[in-house]
Amino acid sequence: MSAVTELARPVDDNSRENWDGGANTGHPVRPGELDLSHNVILYLDDISVSFDGFRALNKLSLTIDAGELRCIIGPNGAGKTTMMDVITGKTRPDSGKAYFGQTLDLTRMTEPQIAHAGIGRKFQKPTIFEHHTAFENLELAMKADKRVRRSLFAALSDDERDRIAGVLRRIRLDREADRLAGLLSHGQKQWLEIGMLLMQEPRLLLLDEPVAGMTDDETERTAELFVSLAGSHSLMVVEHDMAFVEALGGKVTVLCEGSVLAEGDLATVQADPRVIEVYLGR
């Protein structure tokens, strides 16, 4: 079962409908429902991906708990981006298992289905609507069927306005609500895109080098934001800034050549001779 424990293993198709993770009573699961009965939100086991003979992922196995803030570090070419591509359905693995919770097989889902199920991804470069205000960006990102809207910005309910205002406060852009997004600083644009993800109500956030290009103050504020999100959300943060990783705390996974090289708190992995040799020593 590789490095993933039997406890975390998702159910198979034959027992999926009434499995409870070992308890005597059944745990019924409706089709499409996120099952966190084992407190594991992401499960990867023996994932391998090859491109033209190059193995980008090599029997990669890891789990992330519900509400966990996990940092992923490693040298360029370690497989970090490919791993996120597999999780979001952009890349299909050659072999292995990928589950969201205990029941949702990510390898059988499309990218839109995975996003709808509750996995949100932020790329390195912020993608926002620069000619709309910060408030309007969050409205556009709201998880709703906009086909029934009379017009693009019409008939927001009080609850919807309150929700947008709450996200603006959380990402520290409440004073910039009416400002065009294109006029925001680089860090503020990154926060706005994170806010747009939050409007989609994700359970798991994948964040690729979120503080690249930020000032020291913006980096510090981003760490505070991520720590505040942990618990209500699960976060996977891919980052090279060790000071930022240290500020986040929690568990760190080191990838190298497509598989897990080391795991533990930052001090533990920094002291690992293998990690020093392939990554930190450079």
Report on this structure.
There is one protein chain. By secondary structure, this protein is an alpha/beta fold. The chain has a domain at 125-189. The chain contains nine helices and ten strands. The chain has helices spanning 80-87, 111-117, 134-141, 158-170, 186-198, 216-229, 242-248, 266-270, 273-280; strands spanning 40-51, 54-65, 69-73, 95-100, 104-105, 119-122, 204-208, 234-238, 252-256, 259-264. The strands form two sheets. It has a six-stranded mixed β-sheet, with helices on both faces. Strand 9 (252-256) and strand 10 form a beta hairpin. Helix 3 (134-141) crosses helix 4 (158-170), helix 3 runs parallel beside helix 5 and helix 6 (216-229) runs parallel beside helix 7 (242-248). It is globular. It starts with 39 loop residues before the first strand and ends with a helix.
